[in-house]
TrEMBL record:
Keywords associated with the record: Metal-binding, Zinc, Zinc-finger
Transmembrane stretches, start-end: none
Pfam (any one): FYVE
Protein's UniProt name: Uncharacterized protein LOC100186391
Zinc-finger in keyword set: yes
InterPro entries: ARM-like (IPR011989), ARM-type_fold (IPR016024), Armadillo (IPR000225), FYVE-type_Zinc_Finger (IPR052113), Znf_FYVE (IPR000306), Znf_FYVE-rel (IPR017455), Znf_FYVE_PHD (IPR011011), Znf_RING/FYVE/PHD (IPR013083)
UniProt key word Zinc: yes
Amino acid sequence: MIRIDSSEAYPAEIEGANKNAFQSAEFTLKKSSWISDEAANSCAICKSKFNQLRRRHHCRCCGLVLCNKCCTEKLPLPQYGLDAPERVCNACVPVATCVTMSYSNDPAFHLRAVTGLSTLCRDSPASVVTLGGAHMLIYLSKKKLKTHMQTLMHISNGLHSLARHSSIVDWLGSIGALNAVSKLLEHAETSSPKESVPMITDALSALRIFAKTNNSFKMQAMDAGCLPSLLQLCNHSDPSISLVATTTLCLLAECPANQAAIINEHNALRAMLYKVVQSPDEQVTEHVLRIMVVLSSGSDETKHVISSEDATCGGVFAEALQSAHNNLQINANAASAIANLATSERDQVLLQSSLRAVLAQLKSSHPDYVALQLIRATANFSTHSAHASSLLQHLNTIVSYLNKSGSKSNIHAVRCIVNLLKHRNAETVAALCRNGVSDFLLRFTEHDDVIYQVIDALNRTAPPVMS
């Protein structure tokens, strides 16, 4: 049993081992258990007591016992394997009628069916879930129909309406909703942009709900084939679609299991990097760079691929970092991606423009969340001896970060100076003596774990006790 708003629902279930409506060539639903006549003293709908005049009737959909006034309709129910007309109660008729119509070969009936189901998904979701309406929307999503875009628009809207109910998201995933959403987005690629906007909007919104739920759904979305469509929709002419597609792709990228697929998708990285410098929407730029932050936290091979593409595109990260933005999270994300890439030894030549951009921005005033990423990037570059000369020229600026509020900025500045001491001991000491030695020592000694490690290392080098 699942509670949907204030209603209880016992989700419909497909007979057989495969419960995925999208993967089924055709499906039959399990019949509901019947309430026995003896267990029902009154009509389940109107609550009237049964007697000799008010006789009992079973609804073939829900299995409840009802009076003749509340169970008047007879419908064929192919969804239950019943082709002859059977009694259906007034509560089940709206959904059952739509599902039955879906079995027709007439496209007009398909359109009527999904139009009705779309409305019922909004107004009576529990009935749709209980009586197979969700299964039918998923099943029809893969069909090429003459009433193509109108039908798909209602399917997409219905699935989005259902996905808004968090209590049934897991169940929707189990019956193939992500396959359906992926197929809907694939259909959009062959449709005119203007005609398909409502359908794409609902399909993307449903996908985003699944992607926000858990990593399992993020992986299922990739397995269902959503990635190519998402990448294409990131460049959609409608700004709202482009934004939702980008934020959804960002959610999928946050799952480590998906990152290799994104990296390996043909031209995906290059398309996203060009999007950074070409998109007029700063929210889109922010989220594309967020994707790059996530991807750049992967393996050295992944970092190399990203750095190579960035160099091929003319230094996108450096350009994004140095450009003026109203949305400063763009600068923070660009600096964060550069910081991650800077940890790779093999890519330091490719990252020269990024290093120059970081050092140029290091001198400017920034909010703490931007400053943190800039000094982190600087500290990561400082691990490579090839950059020691460049960084020593900016030592006064690095020292100024020792007094930034927030221990994370402080410790990255300490880390940078320690790396410079390792590479250029005498020059770094001389520069610190002119400016910053006291600040450096104060910040260095504030971190107990660092001091303990230094003491341990000294004790190993110069043992306190000797035989």
